[in-house]
Amino acid sequence: MSETATRAYLIHFTSLNAFWRLHKLPVWFRRFIKDSLFSAAQKLLDGLVRQDVLMIEEEQQAFLQNSEIKIYELNRALVSVQRLIKNQAEK
To answer: Which end of the chain has fewer beta carbons closer than 10 Å to its terminal beta carbon, N or C?
Structure first.
C-alpha cells in the first residue's frame, strides 16, 4: 500500500424488509427467487465495480498530473476514505 495504491473491499447486501411477507412463502420458492436474483444482481454489481475502478483510475491520473493543486472534497465519506488511504500509506 502507498499513497497511490490501497486495498478495497466491496460489500453488498439487500434488505428484504420491503418484502414483509416473504417469510410466509415456501422455502423452495424463496430459494428459487434468491438463486435467480443473485445472478442478476451479480452482473449489475460487476458493471458498477468496473465503472468505479475506471473512475478511480482516472481521478488518480488527474491527481498525479496536478498533485500540487489542492482539491476540496465535499463528500465527507470520500474525505474519510482518503484519510484512511493516507494512514495506510504511512504505516
So the answer is: C
Question: What's the grid cell of residue 1?
Answer: 500500500
C-alpha cell at 38: 443473485
Q: What are phi and psi of 51, to 5 degrees?
A: -65, -40
* Total residue count of the chain as it appears in this document: 91
Domain layout of the chain by residue ranges: 22-90
In terms of phi and psi (left: phi > 0; alpha: psi -120 to 50; beta: otherwise), the region of 70 is beta
42-90 pLDDT, tens digit each: 788 888 889 988 988 888 888 888 878 777 778 888 888 888 878 887 8
Pairwise CA distance, residues 22 & 90, whole Å: 48
pTM of the model: 0.51
Residue of 2, 8, 1 whose CA lies nearest to 81 = 8
